[in-house]
Amino acid sequence: MKEKKQGGAMPLRRLYAVMGLAGIVLLVLLLLIGFRARSTFTSMEDAVNDYISVQNGTADMVQASDYLTMQVRSFAATGNTKYVDNYFDEALNVKRRDKAVEKIQGSGAYVETGAARYLEEALALSVKLMDTEYYSIRLVAEAQGINLSRFPQDVQSVNLSAADKALSAEDKMTLARDILYDDNYQSYKEQIYEAVSKCSQALTDQIGHTELADAREVSRMLKFQYAFLAVLFLLFVGFLFFNTRLVVKPLHRFVEHINNNEKMPEEGVKEIRFLASNYNESYEKMKQDRERLEYDAKHDMLTGVYNRKAYEEIIAHQERRHIGFLIIDVDYFKQINDTYGHQTGDKVLQRVANVLSQNFRSEDSICRIGGDEFAVIMVYADSSLKDLVRSKIENIAAMLRDAAGDVPGVTLSVGVAFSDRKDPQGTIYEDADKALYQAKENGRNTYAFYE
Question: Which strands sit side by side in the sheet containing 447-449, from one edge to the other?
C-alpha cells in the first residue's frame, strides 16, 4: 500500500509566501500612493499660495490706487506740497502697484486664464488716471507758484491748455479739484476696480478648479490607503505585538483626535506618520476654510461691511465711555428702488459702504444694520471729536451727492451720540436714533448730534 503524502506543510509555506508577497506588493502600493499624495498636496499648497498671492496683489493694487487718489486730492484741496511728495514717493519709490502686479503675474494660474487681458486693461486705465492727476498737479503748481523742478519730468512736461493757463490762481485751484472729482475721473476709478476684480475672479476660478480636482484625488488616495492598511492588518495578524504597538494603538489614538477635532500626533511607523502628516495638512486647510466661513457669517454679503449679528457683538463688548456712535440712513431709498430698480439700489448701498470705509479709521466698525441703515462705531472717541466727526460727515455727503456712472447721487441723514454725552435718555443707540430723527425732521440731507 502506498503511503499518503504529507500535504499539510507545503500549502502552509506557500500560504505564508503568498501573504509575504502580497504584503510587499501592498506596501509598495502604499508608498506609491504616499508619493502621489505628497505631489497632490504640493499642488494644493501651490494653489493656496496662488490664491493668497492673487488676493494680496489685488488688494494692494486697489489700496495703492486709493492712496494716490487721496494724496493728489489733498494736494489739490490744500496746495500743501507734503501730499504731492507722498504721491510721488508711492508712485516712484514704494511702487505698491508694480509689486502687486508682479504678485498677480507670478501666480501659476495667470497664464492659464484670460486674467492678463483684464490686468493690462487696469494698467492702461491707471496710466490715463495718472495723466489726469498730473494735469491737476500742474494746475496747482501754477496756481501756487511752486517751482516745477521739484516735480518729476512727467509733470514738468504737462502742457496746460491756453484757456486753463489763462485762468486766475483761484480758478486753477478750483479746476484742479474739479477734475479729480468729476464723472470722468470716477469712471476711470470704477473701470480700474472692475478690471482688477475680473482679473482676480478669473484667477480665483482657475485656482478653485485646481483645488477641487486635487481634493478629489486626495480623497480617492486616502480611501485606497485605508483599504490597504486593513488588508495588511489581516495579513500580518501573526505579528500581533508589533501591529498593536506601532499600528493599532496609533490608529486608535488618531481616531480619538479626529473625534475631538484635533490634529493627529505624528507617531508610529513611517506610513502612519505620513498619513498623520497628510491629515494634518488637510486639517489646517479645513480650519482655514472654517475661519473664512466665520468671516462670511459676520459680514454683509452685499456691501462687505459688518452685518447685524456682528454689530450686536461689537456694541456689546465696547467700552461705552470711549465710543462715538453714528446711525446713517440713505434718504428716500425706497424711491431709488422704485425709480431705478433694486439692482441700482444695491449699487447705491455698496457705494455708501465704500465711502464710509474710506472716511473712517480701520479700527472703527462700519455695520449695515438694516436695509438702508448703517451704523459706525468709533472707538476711543468722545465728544471732543465732534468737529472731526462733523468734517467726516460733510466729506461723505460731498462724495455721495453726485452720481457716479450709473449709480445716482444720494443724500444721507445722520444721528450722532457719544458715550460721554450729557443727560443720556437711553442707550447710545437710542440717543443716536433720536438725533437721527431730529435730522430727518430738519428736512433730511443733514446731521444732528444728541445734545
Answer: 365-368, 373-379, 323-330, 412-418, 447-449
Q: Which residues pair with 328 in a beta bridge?
A: 374, 414
User: Cell 493690462 belongs to which residue?
Assistant: 120
Q: Which of 326, 313, 312 is nearest to 419 (CA)?
A: 326
By mean pLDDT, which of 76-80, 206-210, 359-363, 413-417 is the weakest? 206-210
d(CA 22, CA 16): 10
Are both 198 and 313 inside the same structural domain?
A: no
State how far Cα 140 lies from the chain centre. Answer: 36
For the stretch 187-212, pLDDT in tens is 988 988 888 888 778 778 777 777 77
Pick from 206, 228, 246: which residue ends a domain?
206
Task: Compute the distance between CA of residue 142 and CA of residue 146 in angstroms, rounded to an integer.
Answer: 7
Greatest alpha-carbon pair distance for the chain in Å reads 134
What are the grid coordinates assigned to 442, written together? 430738519
Q: What 3-state DSSP class applies to 141?
A: helix
Helix (H/G/I), strand (E/B), else coil: 119: helix
At 282, list the grid cell: 488637510
CA dist 3 and 222 (Å) reads 53
- Residue 258, domain member (yes or no): no
End-to-end CA distance of the chain: 122
**Whole-angstrom distance, CA of residue 451 vs CA of residue 423:** 8
Q: How far apart are CA 332 and CA 345, in angstroms?
A: 11
Give the ranges where 113-152 is alpha helix by DSSP (H): 115-144
What is the percentage of the chain residues whose pLDDT exceeds 70? Answer: 83
d(CA 206, CA 337): 35
Answer whether residue 122 shows pLDDT above 90. Answer: no
- Residue 116 domain boundaries: 46-206
Q: Can you give the pLDDT at residue 8?
A: 39
Number of domain units in the chain: 2
Please, is 4 exposed, middle or buried when counting C-beta atoms within 10 Å of its C-beta (0-12, 13-18, 19+)? exposed
Q: Is the pTM here over 0.85, yes or no?
A: no
Give the residue from 187, 206, 225 where a domain finishes.
206
